[in-house]
Hints:
- It is a single chain.
- The protein has 20 helices and four strands.
- The protein has helices at residues 2-51, 61-69, 90-98, 103-106, 129-135, 156-173, 176-182, 192-199, 206-221, 225-236, 248-260, 318-331, 346-360, 362-370, 375-384, 393-406, 410-422, 424-427, 433-439, 448-459; strands at residues 56-58, 222-224, 277-279, 290-292.
- It is globular, with a radius of gyration of 24 Å.
- Helix 11 (248-260) packs across helix 12, helix 15 crosses helix 17 (410-422) and helix 17 (410-422) crosses helix 20.
- With 461 residues, it is mainly alpha-helical.
- The longest helix is centred in the N-terminal third of the chain and has 50 residues, at 2-51.
- It has a two-stranded antiparallel sheet.
- 54% of the residues lie in helices and 3% in strands.
Amino acid sequence: MLQEESDLSLVIAQIVQKLKGSNLYAQLERQAWGSWEKRILKSLNSMCTELSIPLARKRPVGEQKELLNKWNEMGTDEPDLSLFRPVYAPKDFLEVLINLRNPNYENGDSLSFRTHLGLIQVPLKVKDIPELKEFFVELGLTTGQLGIDDSNQVPPELFENEHVRIGQKVLAEQDSAAAQQYIRQGSPTALRAELWALILNISSQPEDILYYEQLKTNVIQHDLLVDSLIYKDVKLTASNDDYYFVFEDYLYQVLLCFSRDTSVLGHFAYNSASPPKSYIRGKLGLEEYAVFYPPNGVIPFHGFSMYVAPLCFLYHEPSKLYQIFREMYVRFFFRLHSISSHPSGIVSLCLLFETLLQTYLPQLFYHLREIGAQPLRISFKWMVRAFSGYLATDQLLLLWDRILGYNSLEILAVLAAAVFAFRAVNLMEVTSLAAAEAVLADLSTLKVMPLLQIFLFATVT
């Protein structure tokens, strides 16, 4: 009896400790995000002051007509953006994550985590290789995959033909759950747009098209400071990309409408962040005079437009493209630039990446750490952009198939670790961060699926 009471007391103590840790981490999330948000808003407000421009203004009628006339060719416009700068870049956000500390950890709890030598010092629970193998079981070596050219089980053309037939049946039945399961083995190019729309529950009803037109009208009527940040980001990223420069007009249309979409605010309900607020002039601090700024609550950072660019290959009707992007953002992409303990949150992805490398490629991890080339400083930009702009588009879409299929971003961390494993021999020879970055500068020739399969199911035991 005493033993049973003792065991029960131990279980209760463990539960209390977990709850305590959870509450502390939730508090940590809020504090860290609050501090980061203040930095972003300070940068935004400083830009307003330096350039003597308002956060928002109504466009004169003549300017409205001009913008409406060139709506489908905004890429030809060359506004002077030299004085505008991105509010922040991924590397700035990484520094915030590196400085996160859990009070329990500082007080001596989670002692097992003290062996973690990476940059992330928050002891979250992440999957190990056996758990990843179980979670990504459909990526196994004996399962047919699109994106694998040398299957030993079934000739690629036979698998692809049968896979297409099944995909067509899934679409005919309009079964979203079946589509999600199906896409774990990759989507045929011809079916991808319809499958993604089915999984994301996008159907393009007349009211959806009308809603998009209302957002467009809002863009025409009002000029926001973030519009210039969007223009600047597209010019710095997608416009200079061999794959995406042709979609410049689409990117402006989608991102400008996105900034006005108050429905996006809904994702803050399950996010530790809160949307930034602006106050009517002279009413600072009075909540009744506060408005969310921008209206969607999302301030774009350097590289933000690359969340949209790959989707332009699949959807050529602006309102449909817009709906797909918005749903991808509120389901997945927001987690890549906000602080949370969610398994698909960027903090967990960073920790998963570092843990995989330290555990299964310790020699490489320690070598890079010793020469001042912490692997996360290289891989962070890949993960925060979901590899958009780094992989060839066909490979990126195969990767995003699996994000949708597994409803998880964890595959980003696994792929990042797999890239380091693939280039391990070269990386063992480098002696500086710059040299390591040079080895990993070009990912455009990599084949995603073989890398993932080998890392998860062949190389590591």
